[in-house]
Amino acid sequence: MSQNQASSPADAKPATAASRIAALIPGILLCVLIAGVSALLERAELGMFEHPYVEALVMAILLGMALRSFWKPASRWQTGIAFSAKQLLEVAVMLLGASISFAAIAASGIALLVSIAAVVVIALCVSFGLSRLLGLSTRLSILIACGNSICGNSAIAAVAPIIGANNEEIASSISFTAILGVMMVLGLPLLIPLLQLSATQYGILAGLTVYAVPQVLAATVPAGLVSTQIGTLVKLMRVLMLGPVVVGLSLIASRWQNDAKKTNVGFFRLVPWFILGFLALATLRSLEIVPATVVGPVTKITGFLTVVSMAALGLGVDVRVLANVGGRVTAAVTLSLLLLLGISLALVHWFK
What we know:
single chain, mainly alpha, 17 helices, about 0% strand
């Protein structure tokens, strides 16, 4: 009897670990399935229109929300869904660092770099202020500001785990930002004849205002190769601003976390592990320790993990909650985007 009692704790450990892993599988597989369908829809869209106007990331969160609207996942699904929404997203943010090289900053010219940084900082501050004036929460205001000012859905996905944003905040910011992002792709080329923009000016304008890199391509290809090249370069430089913003937010995130945790806060609580991993990979990439041949596969893995995470977030969203803040979020995103467009147009006239 005593031998059985002595051995039971040792036997319980692997059983507990195995049961935890088993509990994750149903929810993760569901999120992967939604992500796979979203990727296929994006590929079909690419085949029809040559450029994906609605990314798989947006597709995943919309499909997740649609499924959640008529089916609430039972407890057996929840563990894996929660893991996909948080831990997988953190891994994706860390892997994003492998695609960033600090050398790209120095090679692009100080004037353009300073201008892009100034636009991003001004847009961040004013977008956050507008969102707060409209009564949105601090976290939702930060997500909207980062999404509009930096790189849309990718910025929102990267910032969300740092500030502890909940599913509704992430979904609402991504959904409304995505709608306006598509409208920008369709409407921005109309400004070329209206404002008589050169290819260079339009490329800068598209790079500063359009959210995602594929959307920049969609918005600039009709304007010619020069606009496409410049727009892509400016967009990538704008994406690089995500690094400093993410690090800065991680350092001050404790202000809106639980007050009980503010005492004796250590370095690794202020700077999450995945941010340290992000910076480490970016440094290794800049030193060419991470070879260029690795960047492509890592980027694809990062993108798919992000889509899986967005599917999980969509599954955790109650559409009725979004309806309560829909008007204010729409107003905040629209005003922020108009502000960004105005600042960018002023900058474009400087770069004649």
